[in-house]
Amino acid sequence: MQLQVLLVAGTHGNEINGIWLFDEWNKSSFLINTYGIKTFRVIGNPEAKKAGKRYIHHDLNRSFQEELFLTRNSSNFEVSRANELVNLFGQTGKNPCQIALDFHTTTASMGSCLVVYGRRDADLALASLIQNELGLPIYLHESDQKQTGFLVESWPCGLVIEIGPIGQGLLNSRIISQTKLILESLMEQIHQVKNLNCFFPEKLIIHRHIKSIDFPRDEQGNIDGYVHSRRQSKDWQELKKNDELFFKLNGETIRFEEDESYVPVFINEAAYAEKNIAMSFTKRELWDFKKEWKQSLIDVVHQK
User: Fold this and answer.
1) What is the tens place of the pLDDT at every residue in 212-249?
2) What is the pTM of this model?
3) Collapsing DSSP states into helix, strand and coil, what is residue 206?
4) Which helix (H) or strand (E) holds 83?
5) Does domain 4-202+289-301 have CATH number 3.40.630.10?
C-alpha cells in the first residue's frame, strides 16, 4: 500500500492562514515540496470557514469520538464532518492515510510548536525529528478528561502544528511562511523515514500537560479579573510561587500559590475562554529517546 499523508487546515474555520496556503498550493502544485509522498489536503471545517466562525455546532477538534458518531444527531455538522473525514481518509477509508498533520493558529504568544496527544510511540518519534530539525517545543497533552476527541488521534500517527500569535480571521505573512516551512520539514522527515535514512536525537524536551486553570469569577460566574500584565505573552516561561497570575480592577493581584513551579502555555488563548481555560500548566521534562518510538514510526510509514 502506498504511503499517504492527510494534511488538514481550517479544522477551526476562523484559523485561515493554513487554508489560504492550501488554496495557493492548489493553484500551483509546485509551491510545496512533498518529496514525492502522496498527500490529501483538506479544509477541516468548510462550513465554519464560510461563516467565519471557529465551528458551527461543536468544536470539530473535539468531535473524533466513536460514541459521538453513534449518539449525536446527524444535524450536528462537526460530528458528521468528523465521521466523513474518517470514512474518507481513515485506515479503512476510501483513501487510507497513515499520518495526519493538522495545522492550527493560536492567539497566544506560543510561537510555533507541536502538540502530541497521549504517548503514542510514532507521534513522539516524528515530533522528535522536527524538534531536532527546527527546535520546536513539544506540548504533550494528556490526562485531561474534559478535552478529548482530537482529529489526529484517529490516525496511526498524527501531530497538531500550532503557529502564532495571530488574531482569528487574519492573514499574516510570517504565519504563512512558518506554516510552509514546518509542512515541508515534516514531509522531508517522513521521506527520510520512508528511505530508512533518518537520524533521531538522543533526547527531546517535553512540556507535559498538568492541568488548566480558569479566570477568576464572581458569585454569578462572570469573569472578574484578567491575565496580569506580567503573565500576558509569557508562554513557555517558568511560573514560580508568588508570581502574578491575574489582576482585578479593585487592585487585587491573584498570585500563583503552589510550591511546585510550572510552565504556562496557551495564555489567554481567545478560543479557550468558552472552555473556561485562562491558561494551561505544564512541566518541562527532558526525555530519553526510546528505540521503540523509532520502530513504531517506521512501521507506520511502511504499513507494517
Assistant:
1) 999 999 999 999 999 999 999 999 999 999 999 999 99
2) 0.96
3) strand
4) helix 77-89
5) yes
